[in-house]
Amino acid sequence: MGRVTTIQVIALFSLLIIFPNLAFAQLKQNYYANICPNVETIVRNAVKAKVQQTFVTIPGTLRLFFHDCFVKGCDASVMVASSGSNTAEKDHPDNLSLAGDGFDTVIKAKIAVDAVLGCRNKVSCADILALATRDVVVMAGGPSYAVELGRLDGLNSTAASVGGKLPKPNMNLDQLNTMFAANGLTQADMIALSGAHTLGFSHCNQFTNRIYNFSKKSPVDPTLNSTYAAQLQQQCPKNVDPRIAINMDPNTPRTFDNMYFKNLQQGKGLFASDQVLFVDSRSKQTVNSWASSSQAFNNAFIAAMTKLGRVGVKTGQNGNIRRDCSAFN
Fold first, then answer.
1. Count of domains in the chain?
2. Which pLDDT band holds residue 15 (cuts at 50, 70, 90)?
């Protein structure tokens, strides 16, 4: 009997090495079936109402989910407001550009869920964010997919935990792969998630080095389409307000499609970290494949989002269900 126990311990230890986020095993579809059976409909209706108010809801919510999961896992810790002596995640410089409409979407959906008899304080902010993210993708014309649920909300949120955890606009393929691999995501997952840049916008100060002072030999990044570079210079003249918003996808910025990959083929990736996916031979084939097949991209995106949603899931004593998404209980 003792020998079996030892073998079991060794087997479990091996699993923990291979799958450091075994906590995601608690996640399952229809997790709230007996707790709050209509939660998905309630969240979807709240998201729909918010999207009708402003389109920014869509890219704002999608980006919020990514930024949450990449820092200490998908636990809605990015939602928490700074208080007292604690500076929270959302106030780290890398998160200051997160759209307020993304936060507002989750808060309103949480209020809608808690207003339903039997659902109050039963559904985590982390799960509501995951559901809302799926819903905004669908509302932009993207694929629908089943969302695994059962996450708890994190018990801490610090700006100090953010540094070095989120991709930068100038990263190369090795840097991107290393960062995503730290979250259990492959190069294919990284490229699929980068495809979310088919929606939303950035700001001039995130890429002006590519159009004005790339190098001594070439002021403009040579991997940029020259016509596109000229358009960007027109939209972002020198000394322009850095908060000016520029669409990530110059062709179909309000539609979730595979245009992102077609843009990369044309040298129209806004960030160097976008364009490198086509420039680097190790990722170019994937870009070409998804540029030619929206179905292949959609399938890869669903797989990557499902894996992303499992990162750093909180269970048991490591989390709870927040009454207010922006504050600890």
1. 2
2. very low
What is the per-residue pLDDT for 6? Answer: 54
Half-sphere exposure of 33 (CA within 13 A, CB side): 5
Three-class SS of 251-320 = CCCCCCCCHHHHHHHCCCCCCHHHHHHHHCHHHHHHHHHHHHCHHHHHHHHHHHHHHHCCCCCECHHHEE
* pLDDT at res. 251: 96
Q: Are residues 263 and 148 in the same domain?
A: no
E-state strands within 42-194 = 153-154
Domain match, 273 and 198 both:
yes
Is 83 strand, coil or helix? Answer: strand
Predicted confidence (pLDDT) per residue in 102-146, tens digit: 999 999 999 999 999 999 999 999 999 999 999 999 999 999 999
Helices 100-114 and 39-53 meet at what angle, rounded to 10? 140
Known catalytic residue at 67 = yes
Do residues 226 and 146 share a domain? no
Q: Does residue 7 surpass a pLDDT of 90?
A: no
How far, in whole angstroms, is CA 109 from its chain's centroid? Answer: 18
Summarised one tens digit per residue, pLDDT across range 57-100 is: 999 999 999 999 999 999 999 999 999 999 999 999 999 999 99
Q: What is the pTM of this model?
A: 0.92
Q: Which of 67, 92, 197, 203 is catalytic?
A: 67
User: What is the rounded CA–CA span in Å between residue 130 and residue 74?
Assistant: 8
The residue segments making up the domain with residue 260 are: 173-307
Strand duo 201-203 + 245-247: pairing: antiparallel
Question: Is residue 152 exposed (0-12), middle (13-18) or buried (19+ Cβ within 10 Å)?
Answer: buried
Three-state SS for 34-68 is CCCCCHHHHHHHHHHHHHHHCCCHHHHHHHHHHHH
In this structure, the chain runs to a length of: 329
How many angstroms separate the CA atoms of 326 and 329, rounded?
Answer: 10
Query: CATH number for the domain including 221?
Result: 1.10.420.10
